[in-house]
Amino acid sequence: MARSSLLWSLLWSYRNYLLIFLTPVLFLPLPLVIPTSEAKCGYVIILMALYWCTECMPLAVTALLPVILFPMMGIMESGAVCVQYLKDSNMLFIGGLLVAIAVEHWNLHKRIALRVLLVVGVRPALLMSGFMGVTAFLSMWISNTATTAMMLPIAQAVLAQLCATEARQDERELRGDGADNNAFELDIKLPKEELLKTKQDHVKSQKDYMCDDEERDADLPLERKRKERELKYQLLTKGMSLSVCYSASIGGTATLTGTTPNLILKGQMDEIFPSNGGVINFASWFGFAFPNMIFMLILSWLWLQFMYMGFNMKKSFGCGRKNEGDREAYAVMKEEYRKLGNISFAEGAVLTLFVLLVVMWFTREPGFMPGWATVLFNKNGQFVTDGTVAIFMSLLFFIIPSRPFWYSSAEEEDVEAGDKGKKKHNVPAPLLRWQVVHERMPWNIILLLGGGFALASGSEVSGLSRWLGESLAPLQSIPPFGISLLLCLLVGTFTECSSNTATTTLFLPILASMATAIKLHPLYIMLPCTICASLAFMLPVATPPNAIAFSYGNLKVMDMVKAGFVLNMIGILTINLAINTWGDAMFQLSTFPQWANITQGTKP
Hints:
mainly alpha; 29 helices; transport; transmembrane
């Protein structure tokens, strides 16, 4: 028995090496027995799918396999494969990320978040809605991982302050030590002594009122109050943590650059259907996905409110006067905002460039009227794409200085021994430096995008997509809304166990082929499935925001499963509602487009 246990332990330790070497050997009979281009391409896809799902190799390294295997198997020439790794969608991704890095570098996202939260207030339901709204908005433009990592500590600090203040209030009331503390006012800045006391109280409250089971008050009513308070804030903390990580994933679906699957859809559409006329761009995606995001966010807030706080309108929404706990929690957020100081020239410049970029994206080719790209370049807006705009605006961050030139001063410094009297000009640095970009840019995602485009191209050229589409033709007997719903459930389940990038990369070429075979508008199934790939709510390992929320120690896996299962169903239903209502009107999904008959692999 001991030897058997040791053997299993050894195999598990070396599982990655076993998967890397055994998987190609086990599936090798497929291209050997059926020596067709379709079978060879299928072999590559199966191999990459298993590597991606098990992560036995880094995802980005797996994405490079087509560069080796497609030329070796005679599917595509090496040059044709390599060019897939830097397409227009990759440039859009790089440009969008450069803007997001600039926003994070100058802490503009934190200023926006705290400003909105100060307006919303600190009552539990309003606080949760405020955190969800701010998190969703920020994740539309910057990484959902960075957004979650920034918002969760703020939420935890505010809740801890509310808990500590409520504990002091209960103790005063039950011991007859009455008067309210009038030192905290919403419009008065706290002195440093009070701020230090607030921080000390925050640490003390964690030990005395939430975590310490040994020091028990002799007063039974006070003990009962303490237990009730612990349970209340334990639930509130769970709900707030889940609301932040879930809204980060939901918010990323609203913009084309919000999350990687959205860009994969655009890239796959342009790769598989080159004559689609730019049906997916920033403006059209936002017009469809933003209302869906708002609807999903409201329903998610209602569900989390029901699970963790109930629907007591008076307590949750703050009917009545503000108490001391509200003032102290508000003071915590106000002090965090005060630390940011006045808005700097660099923050103003970044905000201006960011707003200008969004305006140029929206007006480039809005669809209902000629955009500036068509008017200026007279090429139907296809010569200048969203990627062109993103790269142009991101280059300005390396040109515009981080402070005005007239603030620069020439001052005398000892640069080296014997250099007295020399003037060293204090030249301002640009808004972004390459070192900052190099540290924060997720270069692996660019390879992942390229690997997905290479797979799509190989599937078309080899004929595998056409074969898959013909095999799935019997699905034509199922109503379109049923097909969309079933595929969304399949993708939503698959993405819980796999990267959303890998999920969309694997599924979208197959879905495109199926749609062409059954004469269904490709976007009718590709668009909802792409959004569903981002709705991984049930497991901590499903997506980085979930893992960050789980790492704070307040959540159990079952908490996430119970809340996430309902949210997955809400997401799937809202997306299918959207695709059958305003999505149909926007993209004419009821008719099969002529451009869907002309694919990248079609021979003249």
